[in-house]
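Hey L., structure's done. Input below.
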Amino acid sequence: MKIILAGYNLDYETIREFQKQHPEAKNLTPETISAAYARISRSPKSVDELRAIARQEVEKARQSNRNIVFEMGHSSIAEHAVFNIDVIGVSRLLVEEIEKFRLCSYTEKSQRYVLLTDDFVIPDEIRQAGLQEVFTDTIREQNRFYHALYEKLKPHVFEKHRALAADPENRSMLEGWAKEDARYTLALATETQLGMTINARNLELMLRRLAAHPLTEAQECSRKLYDATKDISPSLIRYTEATDYDRLTRKNLKEEMLSLGKERTRKRKSATAGPGGKKIALLYATPDADNRIAAFLIHSSSMLPMSRCLRIANSMTGREKKRLIRTALQHMKSYDPVLREFEYVDLYFELIISASCFAQMKRHRMATITGQDYDPDLGVTVPPAVSAIGMEKSFMDIVTRTEAVYHQIRKISPQAASYILTNAHRRRVAMKINARELYHIARLRADRHAQWDIRETAEQMLRMGKAAMPLTLMLATGKDGFPSLYDQTFAQTRD
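Output:
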């Protein structure tokens, strides 16, 4: 056996400095690794030898990539070329579009930990509509209230958690709790930044999708991403222009819904959360999920066909199923993922959640998440601490002024109206997850260290999930609750 390090990420400034000192070096591109790996399937040479050849013959490597990726259609070769990209000065609204791409990695500036200044994006649509002044005035008012709210929340948090506040090492954490509640008044136009790791295949898709997006900021992001990467691996990225499929499909679907008639598409009050609470609904759970998990555990642990495994699982007593599933979980620690067999059962949820909550939920990229536009009619999420310090009325005054400007913008530029809405505003989201992913969400988001908004959401999802598949989700909980739940589960006799 040989394990050879083929490459690793380097800061681009380091690469550029090397290029200045060694202008003859023409092979500083991830295309050579893609080309070498592409040749593995058809060459008797060892892969390290193929890499050496590719480095010596960069133009041949590029031509090979073009043939394999674009002529033969083996796009997975482009996944071997990886970029680390700084994305700076974009709005929180645009970040929601960027982070839809699930096979990438993102680390974003957190509004929970960083005290924000007055930085925000002014969209071109707002300028062209002649609404820059009212837009800017509204956001600055939101930001002033954010800072005033933080200054009032901070002593409240320290007083409420006096035991923690006694230790100076907890100061940053407690200040963060005040920031995370104050941020509910910030606009989706607020500037942020993120670090993104993306392979060439997904970069090409991102370039195309952002180019087709109706927001000017998204289109600009596509152009700048392309400019930053086009000369690094030209043989792996070709289809970057907006297509009619990306530009028109969503738009046409909305128009088709309108053509169905007002009666079918009209909002009903019963479908909204209203002020004061979120709405979470479990729309579907795999029928007989515990039986199905038992069947797949039997299948992977035997030599039986699936049809026979299903019959066995259906004939098992509750006690036998419980023993089997507990055996699959018995040696699990709080950091272990459950077995892959738990991906065979699904849960479909509809969530009405704040922008602040969605910003965290969207990071669970292995879930299937689709959402509607932000909708003021769904109400807002007011942090309990804001009410506790007597600032709820002032908070709602900001919301009222914000929504007046939202409707003003929406009449002229519907796509850009959401920029002015706050982290407290809600949207309706559909989410499909399997049981394995719900375990992951529970570990991270139902934990006491999780932010309260998403923790409440995760806990409600978990309660609904456990009612539908109690054996499958018997150890699903936050990291902090895992030891006691584990002890409780396995202290029981095998009854």
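Strands lie at 82-91, 105-108, 191-199, 279-285, 346-354, 368-371, 426-434. DSSP finds 22 helices and seven strands in the chain.

-- N.
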